[in-house]
Design a protein that fits this description.
The complex is a heterodimer of chains A (258) and B (195).
Chain A (H helix, E strand, L loop, with lengths): L2 H11 L5 H13 L1 H36 L3 H4 L13 H23 L2 H8 L16 H7 L3 H10 L5 H13 L3 H18 L5 H14 L3 H13 L6 H5 L3 H12 L1
Chain B lengths: L3 H10 L3 H22 L4 H20 L9 H19 L3 H11 L14 H14 L1 H12 L4 H7 L5 H21 L1 H11 L1
Helix pairs in contact in B: 2-3, 2-4, 3-4, 4-5, 6-9, 7-9, 8-9
The chains are: A mainly alpha (258), B mainly alpha (195).
Chain lengths: 258, 195
Amino acid sequence: MEDRNEHLLINYLDRTLEEREMREMEALINSDPETRKQWQFLQLAVDAVEYSAIYDQVASVRENFRNIQPVEVLQASNRRPARIFRMSRALRVAAAVLLLMVGAGAYKFFTVNATRVYEQAFIGYTLQTDRGQATITETEKAYRLQNWNAVIATIDQLSLKDNKALFLSGMANLQLKQYAEAGMLFEQVLQNNKQAGDDLYHDEAQYYLALSELGGNNTQQAVKLFQQIRADKGHKYHTQAGKIGDLDLKILKFKASR
Amino acid sequence: MYSDAELIAAIGRGDQMNNAIFYIYEQYSSTIQSYILANSGTPPDAEDIFQETVITFIDLVKKDKFRGEASVKTFLAAIARNLWLNELKKRQRSEVREKAFETSRDLTEMDVSEYIADREVKQQFVEVLSKLGEPCKKLLTLFYYENLSMKDITHHLPYENEQVVRNKKYKCLQSLTELVKQNPVIAKLVNKQSD
């Protein structure tokens, strides 16, 4: 078969020919036995591709299915009698409970990670209107509109940044997942309070600093902060930090130490 | 959880293929494999026949040859029965075959033999593709099975542009067609049709 004809047949198969060429090729297939034979082989080649793809896909699912099935599903019906170790009812119950506990523990271990804990623990900070406040600043306006870049920009322009400004800038960075920047701003809030003997935005900064550390993969530091907040019943975020399970924190700490 | 109609639609669209196949395994593998085991099959036989049953079923659905004339369960059971009897014939175990015929009647009476007539050819399809080489197999699968455009294929395979993909695809299909021609079982089918 001529190379040109083969090319045309492939284009006919892919339906990329002009309408006139399609009709000509159709006529050639019907009238010329050699072209018809070549056309059949081409169709079989494409059938082979499709069948082989289905074969691979089913084989892959079969493999997955086998992996999650109890091994005895098929072996139980095997004609060769298997040697069965018979347990008492109490022992079977105990074994089942143990298996469940091990399974649940393994599931917990593998599913707890920094990202997941971050998502569970994160709550947005809602800006309150201060009592007696007559006007709303540009920063507050931008924060309420969740325009995080504008929040950062307006605060950057301030010559004197108080704890509120630093905290809001930290929150805007956190919302933008700029964990290192957010962490530095929250630390600055805590540092200011330490120097002034004050507690303005202390609890807020500590909780969101823990989240910044978690987001920035400083898991050990994050866990330490969460544990401090959980131990302090008067902390504004005590309940929120308590929602992260103790076991989750231990798993995080263990994974981070490896 | 799929109804029969939803399952057929999912396979036809191809967008939830893995879920659909997994569902078929969950729902029907146990019953059908038990049938094979009860009719002289070994556990590997049961698994292999069920796998081939699922492949045959999906192939038929994708080619619009299954139109819901029976329930999916009945249809799968009929395919499995035919494949297994076919396999037993191939193994020349007549005494076992007779026994299998006896015990299979309660499973289904549906005749699907026409759907599995080219079983040997289908097995050769897999064989031929394995000889083609992975890059060509992947490229042709993306184009003819996944229905991806030349442009989309450039995102999946390390080819510079659509024209390179087009040329490569042409050469791959040529090579595959040649392998198909050289395969005696497949060639016999074409020659039979030409006579």
